[in-house]
Amino acid sequence: MNTILRLISLAVFIFLAPKPVMAQTIYSQNFTSGLGGWVPSSTTAIVVNSTSPSGTYTTPFTASGGNNLSLGACGGSSEQTATSPAISTVGQTSIMVGFGRRKTTAFALPIAFEFSVDGGTNWTTISSDISGPTSATWGASVFNLPTAAENQASLTFRFRYTPPSGAACTTAFRIDDFTVTATTALPVEFAFFKGAAERNGNQLTWETVWERKASHFVIERSADAKEFGDIGQVTAVGHTVGRQLYTFTDGEALAGTSYYRLRQVDHDGTTQPSKLISVSRAAEQVVVCDNPTSGHEIRLKAATIDPARLQLLTVTGQLLSFQLIRQSETDWLLRPAIPLKPGLYLLRFGQTNQQRTIKLVVQ
Q: Has UniProt tagged this entry with the keyword Isomerase (predicted)?
């Protein structure tokens, strides 16, 4: 499926005005050591040699001279292709591709320039003919690619043409200094970040669309959305183009509203904040129905009680064992393992950072 993209004006082939700003280079090939991973359909028609070394262009990349890739007009009437190795653009945006080019005066074949993101099953046309505006003098061509080329594990380019029968291999179109650049994006793209109040604390969930050199996530919490403190850390997958789901439970959630944000940390220390979310939960309320009470059982009233956060203690701080029985939606029965002797006891409940204590009098 070929879709012609009119990405830059014809004038760019000749004058490069205005000069495009090339960002970080993520791939470069000047054919000094041969094909360098490029795959020709014919090793007779498509070769690397030092005939007509590149020169004259210096922007946005500099001509390297020496070897270049020659696409010869020989090979009969069979389609010829020169295909690049796969290039990763994971975590990259604003993809640009450029190269030096020249042709012999007799070369009159159209050459399509295309890219693929699925291993070569489908190709998208960047230019239907890069040969037409090219002269016998070296110059440079630069293309801005569409967003479909961004964040891809395998971006591949190819030059494609069909020579006539009987043409000479020395009649050729040449390329050199094939360069791919991009604007480096932040290590992670968040799909969502949300939270919900659960019985065991506030459950935080987030998903990443992709990750690139991500190290970990720091979970931050605030009671006023102004002053934040770290409450935990989750290790990132690190490098992936697939979605990843993460969870974290704030087991010491504040009563009322808690504000959360993530601080994503890259391996080189770069950080990226997430959006701010809030989670609200009602304060845990427990009422002792009879106080003074019996030493055999204590009746409580509460909408919810977390048994793991309920303590029965002596005034000296000794923990006492008990059984907690739910009798109805709001009625609970606390039964000490050993009947309590008359005196003063403490009933403690709630999160560690906001515990409440009720004094119990046993008659």
A: no
Q: Which CATH fold topology does 287-362 show?
A: Immunoglobulin-like (2.60.40)
CA 55 vs CA 15, 65, 66, 100: distances in Å: 15, 6, 9, 9
d(CA 110, CA 97) in angstroms, rounded, equals 19
Kindly state the tokens that stand for 262.
């993530």
Residue 265 φ then ψ, to 5°: -120, 130
Check: CB of residue 305 under 8 Å from CB of residue 332. Answer: yes
- Block means of pLDDT (10 residues each) for the chain, length 363 residues? 36 31 80 96 95 91 95 90 94 90 94 96 96 92 94 94 90 96 78 87 91 91 91 92 92 84 89 88 76 89 79 93 89 92 89 74 88
CA dihedral (78, 97, 99, 128) positive or negative? positive
The pTM assigned to this predicted structure is 0.54
Confidence at residue 165, expressed as pLDDT on a 0 to 100 scale: 85
Per-domain boundaries in the chain: 24-184, 188-281, 287-362
Q: Just give the CATH number of 188-281.
A: 2.60.40.10
- 24-184 and 287-362 in the same fold: no
Contact 129, 159 (CB under 8 A): no
- Name residue 288's beta-bridge partners: 300
How many C-beta atoms lie closer than 10 Å to residue 35's C-beta? Answer: 18
Q: Which CATH class is domain 24-184?
A: mainly beta
